[in-house]
Amino acid sequence: MLDIARCKVLHSAHTDYIDSYVLSESSLFVSERRLILKTCGSTRLLAALPTIIQLAKDYGGFDQVVSVYYSRKNFLRPELQPEEHRSFDAEVEYLDGFFHDGHAYCMGSLKQDRWYLYTYHVPQPITKAPDHTLEILMTDLDEDVLHTFTREACEDGKECTERAGINRIVPKGTLIHEELFEPCGYSMNAFLPDSDHYATIHVTPEKEFSFASFETNQDIICPYKQTLEVLKCFRPGKLLMTVFANDTSVKGREAQQQLWDRELPGYKRTNVQFVRLEVCLFSLDLISSATYCGQLYGAHRVALDTCQTAVFPE
Predict the structure, then answer these.
(1) pLDDT tens digits, one per residue of 17-44
(2) Site feature Cleavage (non-hydrolytic): at which residues (predicted)?
(3) Which residues are registered as beta bridge partners of 244?
């Protein structure tokens, strides 16, 4: 599966609730009924989709995908992407080949940073547990922050985590495994014991196209307060934030409302959008930021929830 997507496992950690993999190109999380694969650069995430579905059936006994979220930020250089990722229209056409009645959205101005989203849900899923996700994409990071995520400043990923203050972002008791790349770059996966709650951070610290991303589904820390800690850690010039929440997620809905009602100190909100009352997007600029340098980093994310509708013998 990962060979097809053009990435590999660097190291992993496991609990009874979730398997966490730090990849050469971002992260993979596998829980009982969900797979989340994040990739970056010029990887081929969608090409791995048929294999993902087949593996879920062969090894998990799951014969139906009940929900799909595929999302990414706009690319600065789409021509450098594999053919199936060079336009969102091409990605939608590919996904529609697997999932009938999927929905595609572009959130944000076509003249600025924007967020592409493809969703699919079966009409009446067998179970619909509360679910929400906070994701923050940051660009134009502070230069002092960027230096922390280099081999010149830190010996390994653990030192980088401590010096950057990343341990202050996640709830107490969170288990972290991380990677500091050569000569620079950082990836971190984290998860809470006794749950399928996770967090992941990825940093591209080159000054010309600096980028950092944060994603979590935890519900222990207030998402608004957690967002403030993320911004304190990375000090970005611009950020794009999405809050996913299904209709049974009370905490997810509360997070959307909090981020709607409250300002982020030092930032000016430039765009807010809702999609089907399930996704809320916020686009913000640092009030005193200098001219923005467009980022080259490309990130894709796909999450699939599975359902077993037939009995499979052991």
Answers:
(1) 999 999 998 899 999 889 999 987 777 7
(2) 25-26
(3) 133, 279
Name which of 235, 175, 233 is nearest 199 in CA terms: 175
Of 7, 27, 31, 40, which residue is the catalytic one? 40
C-alpha 305: how far from chain center: 15
| CATH, domain range 2-307 | 3.60.90.10
Please report, to the nearest 10 degrees, the dihedral formed by the alpha carbons of residues 262, 266, 268, 273 taken in order. -40
Question: For the segment 32-82, what is each residue's pLDDT rounded down to a tens digit?
Answer: 889 999 987 777 788 899 999 999 999 989 988 988 998 887 766 666 666
Residues contacting 218, CB < 8 A, separation 6+: 170, 171, 192, 197, 198, 199, 226
pLDDT value at position 304? 57
Domain ranges across the chain: 2-307
Beta-bridge partner residues of 13: 20
Element (H, E) at 56: helix 49-60
Instruction: Give the per-residue pLDDT at 260.
Output: 82
Render 19-43 in DSSP notation, one character per residue: EEEEETTEEEEEETTEEEEEEETT-
Instruction: Tell me whether residue 40 is one of the annotated catalytic residues.
Output: yes
Q: Is 249 assigned a catalytic role?
A: no
31 is catalytic: no
Mean pLDDT of the chain: 83
Give me the catalytic one of 121, 177, 197, 202: 202
Percent of the chain at pLDDT > 70 equals 83
300 is catalytic: no
CA pair distance 188, 27, nearest whole angstrom: 8
Q: Is the pLDDT of residue 299 over 70?
A: no
